Amino acid sequence: MKLRINGTEYDVAEEPPRTLLWVLHDELGLIGTKYGCGVGICGICTVQIDGEAVRSCVTPLSKVEGEIRTIEGLATVADDGTRVLHPVQQAFLEDQVPQCGWCMSGQMMAAAAFLEQNPTPSEEEIIDAMNRVYCRCGCYHRIKGAVAKAAEQMAVGEGTAV
Ligand code: FES
Ligand code: FES
Q: What is the pTM of this model?
């Protein structure tokens, strides 16, 4: 079957049955997507399908339809070839959000999907959305602040070339 991931088409075997996480991580080398609980609770494995946050550890490959975006595809590439961080990435970087970093791709993919749906969230809405992605290091305060900062940056259309 064909999978479209971060703008590139991949051919993957339909059998044996397995979840999207392991196809991304083990077969396609997109190792930014991490394993946490493996049962759909922690959100660490979050990717986007057609802009929706999806837990890849419990998403059967056979059910995948649409454009997949992983953390490797969250930044964009400008016409001159420079990479432009997504405002969520830029805010997480500026605010030094990660501790161990294990949950961070899931945090950022969830945050980016959330801000697409709710570009002007209240503090409570940010807490409610981001509470669903667990951070064993307890970085929740910085995550909340960085998501709020990203929302502000997106409102003024900022991006940063790297
Ligand atoms: S690893 Fe997928 S939800 Fe925890
Ligand atoms: S930064 Fe360590 S689990 Fe979140």
A: 0.95
Fold of 76-161: DNA polymerase; domain 1 (1.10.150)
Per CATH, the homologous superfamily of domain 2-73 is: Beta-grasp domain (3.10.20.30)
Best residue among 18, 20, 34, 37 to mutate for probing ligand 1's pocket (most ligand atoms within 8 Å of CB) is 37
Atom number, ligand 2, closest to the C-alpha of residue 101: 1
**Counting atoms of ligand 2 from 1, which one is nearest the CA of 100?**
2
Alpha-helix runs per DSSP H in the chain? 20-22, 87-94, 104-117, 123-130, 140-155
Render pLDDT for 121-130 as a digit per residue (tens, 0 to 9).
999 999 999 9
